[in-house]
Write a structure and sequence with these properties.
Layout: H1 8-14, E1 16-18, E2 27-28, E3 53-60, E4 71-79, E5 89-93, H2 99-105, H3 107-116, E6 119-123, H4 142-145, H5 150-167, E7 176-181, H6 183-194, E8 201-205, H7 220-230, H8 236-250, H9 254-263, H10 273-292, E9 299-300, E10 304-305, H11 309-314, H12 325-340, H13 361-368, H14 392-403, H15 411-416, E11 427-432, E12 450-455, H16 473-495
Parallel strand pairs: 5-6, 5-7, 7-8, 8-11, 11-12
Antiparallel strand pairs: 1-2, 3-4, 4-6, 9-10
Helix pairs in contact: 5-6, 7-10, 8-12
């Protein structure tokens, strides 16, 4: 991300993990131009046929002021095959993307619906998918984007649930449980905190609610990425650490740029210093994404990948200390192809494509530039990346150049309580030991009802995915415990008038 002389700090870390905390992932956004083009991946796939109805609800554009009286159509999906009047509602708090994608990738909810006799509702987050407050003008300028906040989204969810309970026969006393992953997991936790009268509990999977200024060290995220590679193959992390200098060395000449472009089969050849920065950011994001989706079976969440993809990648990066720059980068190119061309269908690699197109990168970047300020940094010693400090002022300047707004670094901590949340109740925080986002997550019990479930062999919200024969025992146990808490919340809610 580089706008009008923005700093390289932002290219590598400040904006580097633009949290696609989606049901998914955070992404490095390198240059400003890429913010508008980054897309890719394949259509979602499901493990079993699912069926739902699509509805639209008239939401207020502004829940907290009285001057803007406009409304928009919020999309939501409903599956009530197993629900009976009075039964529970499992409510997915949609994150930054098309709600149908999250619906199709949240197999856990579909698998427990019959067991709990639950209705499933998947609510789309404003400004994403089809839920655009100002239609095609929603992203036209900062005035139209002004209503893209987590607070407005939570109010949307609350109003939608109240409407469903008042209009759907038999739902008036149905207990509602919020469920979400990544940014959606943050929203599910905050939903329970802000609207305990609306939801009886929440499952916040891979939810980095503490990845904000002053709450966790800015370098912990990249340390976990590095640990994932270190444990997956001999010298794997060390050789990725060496690769940045090798890229600098080789790209210092025109023939080197040509060699790199051909070695990596790049769709657009490298021709300038900016191209090389972009290229390195693309590789950095590749390693981050692999850490998030290091699942034990074949999966197609961000890209089609083999089981334990980092182990496969590291087979190409086991060189000893005598490796030459060209040998090392040949190994890196083979490793990158595991992520971008596992199926063998790509004739070239596009450095503007790293993940599914179902995520709303521009919308999330605006949120990161306002209230979702998540510091990231690297030192090249405790992690395998080039050193890059967190520079809030540079980040703020970049945001102002793009949107004409400046981020409020402390706002998320003020509005959602930061680490001072012990007064709340009935929230499960689940985190995978392989997931870099666990660095900003709740990984210990705060009270008897603010509980942590850690899945040592789990990547990003593995517990929300469909069950699989190759699932580790830890995720099976996590899901069983989550359902146990759900049953307890439902039982208590039904006993309370």
């Amino acid at each position: 991300m580089r706008a009008g002389g923005g700093t390289e700090v932002l290219d590598k870390a400040a904006a580097a993990c633009i949290l696609t905390l989606c049901f998914g992932c955070l992404h490095v956004i390198a240059l400003k131009s890429q913010l508008f083009t980054r897309h890719g991946g394949l259509p979602y796939s499901t493990e079993a046929p699912i069926s739902y109805e699509t509805f639209y609800f008239d939401q207020k554009i502004d829940h907290f002021g009285f001057l803007e009286n406009g409304t928009f159509k919020q999309r939501y999906l409903v599956a009530d095959k197993h629900w009976k009047p009075g039964g529970p509602v499992l409510f997915y708090t949609g994150n930054e993307g098309d709600i149908t994608w999250f619906c199709n990738n949240t197999g856990f909810m579909w698998e427990i619906a019959e067991e709990l006799g639950a209705m499933l509702v998947f609510a789309e987050h404003r400004y994403y998918g089809e839920s655009l407050p100002f239609g095609q003008d929603s992203y036209s300028d900062s005035k139209h984007l002004n209503y893209l906040t987590s607070e407005q989204a939570l109010a949307d969810f609350a109003v939608l649930i109240q409407n469903l309970k008042s209009t759907l026969q038999g739902a008036q006393h149905s207990p509602v449980i919020a469920i979400g992953g990544s940014y959606g997991g943050m929203l599910s936790a905050w939903f329970r905190m802000k609207y305990p009268n609306i939801v009886v509990g929440a499952l916040a999977a891979s939810a980095p609610i503490w990845q904000f200024p002053g709450m966790v060290p800015c370098g912990d995220f990249y340390k976990i990425v590095t640990q994932d590679f270190a444990r997956s193959g001999s010298n794997c992390d060390a050789n990725i650490r060496k690769s940045w200098k090798a890229i600098n060395n080789v790209s210092s000449t025109g023939s080197g740029l040509q060699w790199l472009s051909e070695e990596f089969s790049l769709c657009t050849p490298l021709k300038s210093v900016i191209d090389v920065i972009n290229f390195k950011n693309w590789l950095q994001e590749t390693w981050v994404n692999l850490a998030m989706v290091d699942y034990p079976y074949e999966a197609n969440f961000l890209q089609p990948l083999p089981p334990w993809p980092i182990q496969v990648v590291c087979k190409y990066l086991g060189f000893d200390s005598t490796v030459s720059d060209h040998q090392l980068l040949h190994g890196v190119s083979q490793a990158a192809r595991i992520y971008y061309n596992y199926t063998g269908g790509s004739s070239c690699l596009n450095t503007s494509q790293t993940a599914t197109g179902s995520l709303g990168f521009l919308g999330w970047f605006y949120q990161a530039c306002t209230e979702m300020v998540m510091p990231m940094c690297t030192d090249g010693v405790q992690d395998m990346f080039e050193p890059s400090e967190w520079n809030f002022q540079a980040f703020s300047d970049e945001c102002y150049g793009m949107f004409g707004v400046r981020p409020r670094a402390d706002w998320a901590g003020i509005v959602y309580g930061g680490k001072d949340i012990a007064s709340h109740s009935n929230i499960i925080f689940s985190n995978g030991g392989l997931d870099p986002w666990s660095a900003g997550g709740v990984t210990y019990n705060i009270t008897d009802s603010l509980v942590s479930i850690v899945i040592p062999e789990g990547a990003h919200h593995l517990d929300l995915r469909y069950s699989n024969a190759r699932d580790p025992a830890s995720v099976r146990a996590a899901r069983a415990l989550e359902v146990k808490y759900f049953r307890e919340w439902i039982r208590k809610a039904k006993k309370t008038p």
